Amino acid sequence: MNYDKLLFDADATLYDFKAAEKQAFMLTMENHGFDCSLGSYELYSKINDDMWKRLERKEIGKAELRVERFASYAAATHQLMDAEQISMEYTNNLAEMGILFDDAMAVIQTVSQKIECSIASNGIGYVQRRRFAKSGIEPYFKHLFISEELQAEKPDPKFFKRVEEVLEIHDPKRILFVGDSLSADIKGGVMAGWTTVWYNPDHLKNLSEYQPDYEIDSLSQVIDLLN
User: Fold this and answer.
1) 208: CB partners within 8 A, 6+ apart
2) How many separate domains does the chain show?
3) Considering just the CA atoms, what is the radius of gyration of the chain in Å?
4) First and final CA of the chain: distance in angstroms?
5) Domain of residue 212, residue span
6) Which residues are catalytic?
7) How far apart are CA 170 and CA 5, in angstroms?
8) Which of 54, 115, 139, 143 suits 82 as a labelling partner, its CA being 20 to 30 A distant?
9) CATH code at 159?
10) What is the pLDDT, as a whole number, of residue 92?
11) Do residues 34 and 113 share a domain?
């Protein structure tokens, strides 16, 4: 099938978010004299992941998420910290971490010569845009669709509808969408009628009710889907 547009999720698809998250967390904790051991980061990361799942389910708002993740972390580790201040500093540090996966740039450069590419990301607007600029990928993408700016989080159908409106899409099946999250990317893409590609480098089992059109374990396989 020929596709009109190619969209990528950002974090854990093109970007090594865990590496960026770890660096930003460690730097923030170190600056304030808090525990910055590997175990402390792993606990924070789990709390953060859980918060983003709650956001996908519309159980909390993004402003609440940004502060509550650090308030929950502080409570779990019995540390006294100003969660709002720590959140702000962490977010600013994260914005400087545009760490791509090793093969991402080469794939982006190749596919952008074949088809118009955009990014569809759940995230904080200024953080994502700063990371895009730091990583050098901006020239290869027509649009950066960020949930905070669209006022809707994947898998909310509003997110996908607003993307379609900007792209002037008439046949949603002609959008090829690559993402790592079954609950955000694949679920949302399937509901929107897009052609979905589950990026699954860790070979996880799909226990959800949403089945992608394709499953890949390497970003370079996206090139094959366009040939």
Assistant:
1) 182, 183, 186, 187
2) 2
3) 18
4) 9
5) 5-16+100-226
6) 9, 11
7) 11
8) 54
9) 3.40.50.1000
10) 96
11) no
